[in-house]
């Protein structure tokens, strides 16, 4: 875990005080709403459908027990006893009051947290692999780089008023769990031929109205060139990114309109100037950060209780089959705690659950927790011998749902239940699907499947990269849900393709059911996943089942 | 949003609490949709809206929303978005619906 | 102008007209000038504001087909728009021309409709002065409803004047009092602007008009809190283009200061042809989208560069400042326009020395708010990462 320096602590405390002053100036009228809006957004404060919403940064999804407990306290003191973990590894409080937000920021500062740059047309809170520092397949730990980027991007004077928001993700594994190909900048830790450390830099990925897969701008960037190179990309974007149309303002459109070669040339030109500004101090900072991310002191103990309990308890056994991932240390496991109990709102956790997670992490996961973009909580370092106790503690807190990677482990933005931009609800569809397949007792036989649901075209629910994506729109005054198929957010990045006309709120669950039943009949065998089957057969047979009335038409 | 209904109300969010509020007949703001004053579509609601935008600093983001008259003559939302604003999230019993209970 | 005898100077002709009509009844004068071919093609400019109905009624009784130019700044009260439609219908006006600001210019200069917040002069230019100038090109003269009693520069106004384009400008109501207007409206039973009942005595654009109360200068409610009194369409008569220039406030780490640069600002385009003597003290204006390297040939000769910020949410200027510094510019660098106090530290860290704001913004965000950010050098992550201690 990164330990805040005196500098970091002073920064977030001062920032909270500044925001208190800004809120005061808004209330007394010396700041207009137009002027206040970007300032509050830069501090994570939105005004949504029913109330304000405060989005607190959990940089690269990493937090410790003390921080999780503080978040639970905030949920009780300033909100309605729960919070929502977002698809960008952050946490959202949906009912704060404007005058109390400075108090919340102050409370966050005492546990080295903040809400800085979780919104606004600036560089947003950096995201990363939620298994970082633990995964067996990891080549290099992305967290030090992510922390370096966090510090560099915080309050960057040039880049607080960009054409649009700007998102950076970092991964250090072959299996891309950070969706880097769909970020404005995706960084992959790689080595060059001589084994020197560096990055592959992708630019211009994104979801939203115009989904695009990021393109490689530099296949190898020396590690010490990272910050000046990022500065060069941002500087080019800040100056030539479109400001006349917010739907064309993201860097993916800048890249699309100018072409990769033109952007590369501009970036290299700017980089040549920027490079001279860095005298190596950043590498000293990086070295200090890296020292913070040394692996915890793993214990050497027997794992036999794990095997015994698996044999004795079928529920525990089922949990271990879905919710564990291989750890670097063979005696350890990564536990994914599902925030998708069947019928619950994906990503929501009560303050009691958050406290339970804090306590469990403290006792059994070296104090560490992670938030995944798939809206689950990770216990990254659990000794296998402790797993039965961890499972029991999770079960008591209502957090032992064994569905990771399955159909009910779907992600959804808050949708029209909270969001003022939404055109339809999304959580109702998530709940409906989970309950439906739980009732059918089919989800284990369906196998790995990622359903992702967004309540509007902005795609916070990542529907473009869902194996099955669902997009909620409004059509003629009612909710209408469009289905896309074949999306993939990993290193095999693909954008899902729309199947055809949308379904009403009543029709969408039966439509998904038809789709899944046809997959079960179409797959070669039980080990052929939905995505593999779809890639083999294409959309045609699925369209037939989605739109039965049209099955005789030629064009499917 | 295109307004199809001939009847409208004025709604906004309270600056301090963020809560959804409705303009009432006596020019105050109420938390309850049923207290909203109903206008015929036309110059009058636009005039009120312009005045709120210029002078009322107690609310944020005022706009006109479609409405209909319920059985008890009170204003009722037309669009489903406004129905959610008037009650609270549909996935959790919280917000206005909970305070009313 | 189509006066018969070009040998007579225009100003002499205007003086003659003032003398000729000094005791003529207003309606009679209007009848004469609108039927006299010597005046050429005339238009009535009307704001459809508080008293506009008087002149409109008179014109309607003489010639319903007289072109009436109505400048819709797209910032007017909706009451003004509905009042305009009602008057046109009630009085039977046949040729009301609603003139809008140029779409392209608005997109370019005020895409968020916030220009009025930080530069009222530029807003009036964009939405009033330029559209009017465009509309007037086809006319030889224009009729305006200004009154002397409205105060300010209007107190010395004549019936006939020349505008900056040497067009004749007629002010038939110059000598009318407020009571005269009120009794005419009452006698003719004319409809009143709906905002008059709410205390507005002079009505312009919604953002810059407040009720002016019952006493004092009627136009006190226009651009309230500013030194500005005219939008710009009524200057002329060989007068300087701007009677009152809002004083710029220069913000530095020491607080508010007044402008100390007297040598003026040049455009980048003019650099190539600038006479040598002008280069002794050289300052230029740049926009945020300027390509910094284009300045390289001159970069050592420039003393002051002023970068404009059209709206505070447009951060291009910060990157431009950074690049100018990286390319070796060592002179004064100034950010000008809509910058809020909360951006002061960003401006300083990006390489600006100072910020130039107008008085309206300075009043809303006074000196202490800016000075709270004079500590921009501390808590600077980027500096920590760039340079070893």
Key features?
heterotrimer, B: 101 residues, alpha+beta, 6-stranded antiparallel beta sheet, globular, C: 389 residues, alpha/beta, Rossmann fold, TIM Barrel, 7-stranded mixed beta sheet, 6-stranded mixed beta sheet, 13 strands, 31% helix, elongated
How many individual domains of chain B? 1
- Helix and strand succession of chain B? EEEEHEEHH
Report mean pLDDT of chain B, rounded to a whole number: 90
Number of helices of chain B: 3
**Assembly state of the chains shown:** heterotrimer
Tell me the strand percentage band of chain A.
15-25%
The proportion of residues forming helix of chain B, as a percent range, comes to 25-40%
Biggest sheet of chain A, in brief?
Answer: 6 strands, mixed
Major sheet description of chain B:
6 strands, antiparallel
| Poorly predicted segments of chain A | 551-556
Question: Which descriptor suits the 3D outline of chain B?
Answer: globular
Assigned CATH architecture of the largest domain in chain A = 2-Layer Sandwich
Please give the alpha-carbon distance between the first and last residues of chain B: 31 Å
Name the CATH superfamily assignment of the largest domain in chain A.
Sulfite Reductase Hemoprotein, domain 1
Total beta-strand segments of chain A: 21
Helix content of chain A: 25-40%
Radius of gyration of chain A: 23 Å
Residue windows where pLDDT falls under 50 for at least 5 positions of chain B? none
Alpha-beta classification of chain B = alpha+beta
N→C terminal distance of chain A: 52 Å
Strand pairing plus helix content of chain A: what structural class? alpha+beta
């Amino acid at each position: 875990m990164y330990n805040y320096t005196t500098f970091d602590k002073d920064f977030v405390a001062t920032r909270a005080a500044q925001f208190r002053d800004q809120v005061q100036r808004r209330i007394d009228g010396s700041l207009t709403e137009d002027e206040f809006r970007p300032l509050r957004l830069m501090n994570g404060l939105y005004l949504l459908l029913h109330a304000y919403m405060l989005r607190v940064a959990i940089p690269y999804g990493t937090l410790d027990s003390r921080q999780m407990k503080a978040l639970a306290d905030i949920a009780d003191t300033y909100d309605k006893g729960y919070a929502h973990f977002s698809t960008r590894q952050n946490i959202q409080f949906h009912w704060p009051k404007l005058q109390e937000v400075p108090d919340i920021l102050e409370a966050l500062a005492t546990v080295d947290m903040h809400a800085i740059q979780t919104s606004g047309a600036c560089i947003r809170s950096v995201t990363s692999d939620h298994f970082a520092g633990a995964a067996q397949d990891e080549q290099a730990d992305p967290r030090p780089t992510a922390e370096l980027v966090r510090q560099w991007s915080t309050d960057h004077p040039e880049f607080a008023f960009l054409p649009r928001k700007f998102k950076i993700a970092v991964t250090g594994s072959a299996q891309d769990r950070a969706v880097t190909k769909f970020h404005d900048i995706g960084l992959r830790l790689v080595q060059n031929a001589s084994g020197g450390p560096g990055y592959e830099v992708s630019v211009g990925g994104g979801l939203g109205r115009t989904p695009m897969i990021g393109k490689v701008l530099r296949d190898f960037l020396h590690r010490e060139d990272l910050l000046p190179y990022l500065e060069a990309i941002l500087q080019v974007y800040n100056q030539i990114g479109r400001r006349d149309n917010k739907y064309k303002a993201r860097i993916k459109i800048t890249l699309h309109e100018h072409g990769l070669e033109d952007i590369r040339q501009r970036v290299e030109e700017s980089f040549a100037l920027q490079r001279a500004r860095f005298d190596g101090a950043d590498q000293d900072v990086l070295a200090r950060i890296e020292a913070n991310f040394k692996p915890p002191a793993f214990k050497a103990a027997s794992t036999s209780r794990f095997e015994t309990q698996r044999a004795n308890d079928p529920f525990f056994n089922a949990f271990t089959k879905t919710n564990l991932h291989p750890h670097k240390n063979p005696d350890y496991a990564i536990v994914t705690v599902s925030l998708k109990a069947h019928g619950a709102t994906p990503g929501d956790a009560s303050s009691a659950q958050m406290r339970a997670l804090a306590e469990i992490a403290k006792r059994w996961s070296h104090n560490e927790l992670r938030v995944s973009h798939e809206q689950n909580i990770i216990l990254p370092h659990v000794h296998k011998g402790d797993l039965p106790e961890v499972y029991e503690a999770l079960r008591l807190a209502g957090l032992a749902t064994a569905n990771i990677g399955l159909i009910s482990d779907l992600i959804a933005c808050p949708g029209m239940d909270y969001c003022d931009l939404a055109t339809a609800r999304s959580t109702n569809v998530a709940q409906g699907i989970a309950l439906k397949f739980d009732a059918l007792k089919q989800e284990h036989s369906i196998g790995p499947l990622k359903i992702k649901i967004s309540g509007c075209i902005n795609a916070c629910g990542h529907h473009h990269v869902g194996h099955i994506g669902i997009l909620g729109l409004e059509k003629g005054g009612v909710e209408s849900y469009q289905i896309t198929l074949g999306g993939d957010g990993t290193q095999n990045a693909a954008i899902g393709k729309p199947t055809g006309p949308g379904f009403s709120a009543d029709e969408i669950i039966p439509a998904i059911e038809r789709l899944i039943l046809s997959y079960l009949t179409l797959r070669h065998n039980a080990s052929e996943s939905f995505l593999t089957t779809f890639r083999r057969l294409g959309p045609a047979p699925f369209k037939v089942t989605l739109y039965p009335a049209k099955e005789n038409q030629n064009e499917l | 949003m295109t307004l199809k209904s001939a009847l409208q109300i004025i709604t906004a969010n309270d600056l301090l609490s963020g809560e959804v509020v409705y303009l009432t007949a006596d020019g105050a703001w109420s938390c309850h949709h049923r207290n909203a004053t109903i206008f015929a579509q036309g110059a009058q609601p636009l005039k009120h809206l312009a005045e709120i935008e210029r002078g009322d600093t107690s609310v944020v983001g005022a706009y006109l929303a479609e409405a209909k008259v319920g059985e008890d003559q009170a204003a009722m939302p037309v669009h489903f978005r406004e129905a959610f604003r008037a009650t609270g999230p549909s996935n959790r019993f919280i917000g206005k619906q909970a305070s009313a209970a | 102008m189509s006066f018969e005898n070009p040998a007579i100077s225009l100003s002499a002709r205007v003086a003659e007209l003032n003398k000729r009509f000094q005791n003529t009844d207003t309606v009679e004068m209007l009848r004469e000038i609108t039927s006299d071919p010597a005046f050429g093609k005339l238009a009535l400019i009307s704001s459809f504001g508080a008293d506009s109905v008087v002149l409109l009624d008179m014109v309607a009784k003489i010639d319903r087909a007289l072109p009436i130019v109505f400048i819709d700044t797209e910032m007017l009260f909706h009451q003004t728009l509905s009042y305009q439609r009602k008057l046109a219908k009630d009085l039977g006006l046949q040729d009301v021309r609603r003139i809008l600001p140029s779409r392209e210019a608005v997109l370019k200069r005020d895409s968020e409709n916030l220009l009025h917040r930080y530069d009222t002069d530029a807003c009036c230019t964009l939405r009033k002065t330029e559209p009017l100038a465009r509309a007037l090109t086809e006319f030889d003269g224009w009729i305006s409803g200004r009154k002397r009693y409205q105060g300010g520069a209007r107190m010395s106004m004549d019936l006939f004047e020349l505008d900056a384009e040497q067009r004749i400008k007629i002010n038939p109501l110059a000598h009318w009092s407020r009571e005269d207007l009120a009794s005419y409206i009452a006698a003719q039973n004319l409809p009143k602007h709906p905002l008059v009942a709410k205390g507005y005595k002079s009505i312009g654009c919604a953002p810059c008009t407040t009720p002016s109360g019952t006493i004092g200068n009627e136009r006190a409610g226009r651009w309230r809190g500013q030194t500005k009194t005219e939008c710009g369409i009524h200057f002329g008569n060989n007068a300087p283009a701007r009677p009152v220039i809002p004083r710029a406030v220069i913000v530095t780490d020491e607080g508010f200061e007044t402008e100390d640069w007297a040598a003026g600002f040049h455009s980048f385009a003019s650099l190539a042809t600038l006479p040598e003597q002008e280069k002794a003290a050289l300052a230029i204006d740049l926009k945020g989208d300027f390509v910094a390297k284009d300045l390289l040939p001159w970069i050592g000769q420039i003393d002051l560069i002023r970068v404009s910020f059209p709206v505070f949410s447009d951060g291009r200027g910060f990157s431009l400042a950074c690049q100018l510094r990286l390319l070796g510019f060592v002179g004064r660098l100034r950010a000008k326009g809509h910058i809020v106090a909360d951006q002061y530290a960003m401006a300083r860290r990006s390489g600006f020395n100072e910020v130039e704001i107008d008085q309206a913004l300075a009043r809303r965000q006074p000196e202490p708010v800016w000075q709270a950010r004079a500590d921009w050098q501390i808590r600077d992550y980027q500096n920590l990462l760039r340079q070893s201690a």
